[in-house]
Amino acid sequence: MGKWRYGVILDAGSSGTRVHIYRWLNSDKARSKASEEELQSLPEIETDKKWTKKIHPGISTFGETPHNVGPDHLDELLSHALKYVPLEEVPNTPLFLLATAGMRILPPGQRKAVLQEVCDFAKKTTKFQLPDCNLHVQVIPGETEGLYGWIAANYLLGGFDSPKDHDHGKGHHTYGFLDMGGASAQIAFAPNATEAKKHADDLTLLRLRTVGGTALEYRVFVTTWLGFGVNQARQRYVTALLESSTTTKEFPDPCLPSGLRVTKDGKPIDSDEKQEDDRELVGTGKFSECLHQTYPLLEKEKECLDEPCLLNGQHVPAIDFDVNHFVGVSEYWHTTHEIFEMGHKDKAYDFKTYQERVEEFCSRSWKDIEKGISKKKWGKKVDETTALEVCFKASWLINVLHDGIGVPRVGLEELQGDQNTTKAVIDGAKEKGFLNPFQAVNKINDVEVSWTLGKMVLYAASEVPPPSENDLAVGFGSNEDGIPENFQYPGGAYLPYPDTDDDHLLADNSRRIPGLIIFVLIIFVIIFTACGRERRQSAGKKLGQLFGRGSGRHGSSRRRRGLAGKLFGSSAPSYERVLESGEGADDFELGSVDSNSDHEQSDSSDGSRLGRTSGWATPQIKATQATPGTPGVDSDNIVSQGGNLGLGPPAYANAIDRGGLMSRTESRERLARSRPSSPGRLRSGRTNLRE
């Protein structure tokens, strides 16, 4: 096991699956080189944009054909992961496939069959670490997805490691998290002290551990709204629109640009093309009316059984926007920035300006929008599909944010508190410390804010050994003392790092050693052949004198153990150095990472394979007998270790004594007389030496 630990997560969403690869230093190695400040920080996770890959559609589309999910879907993603995880580290690398809303809506039987096929295929085709399929391959609840997202956002923003630099007032230093996908939406935040005490039973207890072993505890409220993602909301909207009248085939849709005609599934209609369902939606381009018609989808009229509630009658503690500053990802980012804030990646969200830009775009005719798309007016990523959907998505986002969750309308409403007051669009949300009530983000310090990162942070933290046996485990569960019954363990375990003082040059070039040995042997054979028969015979005599005498006859024991051990090896545990070779490992995008600072940040493994384990098995040392010419064996160490361990003389040495160059029963005089006059005997001796 090398100093780098790797993790692979497949985010199986409703529209597609994306593979993420992360790496971090082994906890022992990280602690040995950490400063006092770094000891109080969480493990440093590294990634690279080349390490991610997404394919469409999602695995939920394999509900009726689960046996196809491996070859038709997973194979491409796993192959991508194997390109970047060093081969020797694959058995030590955990693999997770965590599915979200798309799989949640599948029938239970289909869901189970797909997950089983995923696990079986991964085990058959790779050696990634999969000790427990129920833990590593599963459909996670929306609350878990939201909690992972909350961890990722605060990890990147510094809310965990530098609380003094993120003091929002009232002792609060973490950020809230909002996520919206195609099928569901999540919210996660730490309520202020008053609300946390009032709603203690509704909170999730989260435990993390720093590099130095210090335990961190947070109490977070998390909930999910299934069916409130943009695609599911659009389906509910269209259903309500079609049910509003049964006497017409054309339904005016204010959420579509004027002049655009689409099917009820949202596909543009060609005037000459016949449709099986002749009902169609006709765009009118009236955004204010679109806002009005999407408002009922919030279902705020549903009974609230546990006050207070936000959407769909679901309980949410009161949000104190003086201290709770939210970041929104996924659709919150795409819908606010990809068209309306193009070229302003860090622009602070301003409700007034945003709504004005949306209205300006959505009031255009469809022909005008098509011309703008062809000229790349809104960037290369904006195509016709994006353009025809964005007006509905913008109206839905505005309603959810401001009428649903209650985020103050920056630019219209006067906010309380000196930190939050603003009435204009402000460039550079980072410079403001993300202190607006809401800010859409995609990346922080060039790292994507993904819930998969939160999962990996939790996993890496669980590998840090606790200072004492009484320390509680890393993970999350009900807000109770100790370890609650529903406590979720991340799956990591402490893996000691076999640190050595090996020469760096040797460690960094271990893969070159076998080739070097072969080259030296070839040169030796050429020289030996060219030196002539007499010189070869003379060399054979000297070798016979060096190795053929009994114990104590020629040279000290140290000389024999050094030179003879190098030629023949010894009976001792076999060690093999390995070298990591992850591609793209030196150009990470984490702002605080310097991957080229010293040898510790290289991909080389300056340890041995001692203690390598797949899963959580206890590392073992297997004693194997080294034989002459074994690649990668350091015979000096082998001999000395064998002597210290009392392993005794090697078996082949006894064979030489019994029937090799000479027998102990022959007299020294007889050997002296026979050796000069018996070339054949010398040749025989050399043959035995080689054997």
UniProtKB/TrEMBL annotation:
Residues 615-628 have a biased composition (Polar residues). It comes from the Eukaryota. GO terms for biological process: CTP metabolic process; UDP catabolic process. The chain crosses the membrane at residues 513-532. Residues 544-568, 586-691 are annotated as: Disordered. Residues 674-691 have a biased composition (Low complexity). Belongs to the GDA1/CD39 NTPase family. This is Putative nucleoside diphosphatase.
